[in-house]
Specification:
With 308 residues, the protein is mostly helical. It is built from 16 helices and no strands. It has helices spanning 2-27, 37-57, 67-74, 78-101, 109-115, 120-139, 152-165, 171-183, 191-202, 212-215, 217-228, 232-237, 244-253, 258-267, 283-292, 294-303. Helix 6 runs antiparallel to helix 9 (191-202). It is globular and about 65 Å long.
Length: 308
Amino acid sequence: MTAALAANLASDDRALAGAIPIVSHMLGNQGQALLSDDVIARMRGTIDAIAQQLCFLTTGERGDVDVSALGVMLAESGGLINHCYALAVEGALTQQLSVEQGIDPALPALLQELIASRDTNIRQLAMALMASQARFVAGQGHGGAPLFELPIEIFNGVLDVWKVCGANQDNAYLVQKASEIRAQYVEEATRLGLLERLISAVGASAEIISEIETAGLAIFISAIAKSTGQPRDLVALSCQQQQCLRLAIALRATGRSTEANMRQLALLGANISLPLEFNGWDKDQALGVLGASALGTEAKARAVPGNG
């Protein structure tokens, strides 16, 4: 049974890994989309907004980087595409949960409770996250200022692409501008940084933060990622119906009850049939299958210093 589920997970991993170059191609074309129009529109909007924001920040007397050319180059950046894909899926599902389940996209029940906490640190983190989540919901795929919300490695990668795009300009100028932009970046103040800090403050083992109906999708994704050691983007992508096997295994790895896990899958519209033996897995078995999968192995390799 373990071998069969691992084989199914490997098939899902191959499909997900193969989707990234296809998505990159689709962003540059108006042809029939393999993904929903909403997801593609959200991705394209985020990448265009990053290009526009970066060009605005770097406007100077020595000439500007062409925003259209930069957008095209960013759409070919695998790391950024994967991240924007995950954000688009998260944004679309957040909206879906709001419409179908009445879960507030910016202020779910748990966040309301934490804002009223007597713990000053938790209260301030919860208020900051509420504001950041509201900006994400309002701006995701529709403009906004997403550059300074990127994870640090992707933020640096975007700046590298910008410098390549502006290679016809003076190198000292490019280095200076890149340094000025980096000085404005504060990772722990990003939405993802606030999510991680709040979960650490509340306790990643607290069951309530792994319940979509109370914590909301953003906290849920970050909590599962922290609990299982998976990249957050991978957990977000596993919330799609066609990737729900990975999420089911990840939920099993949290040690929660089968009933609670199936409730989370049902909220996301997942239609999955698991053998009865699956309910007998312990956390280590589930984590072992995740870690041995192709994407799990790749994630561990990236976590090792010196690996790209």
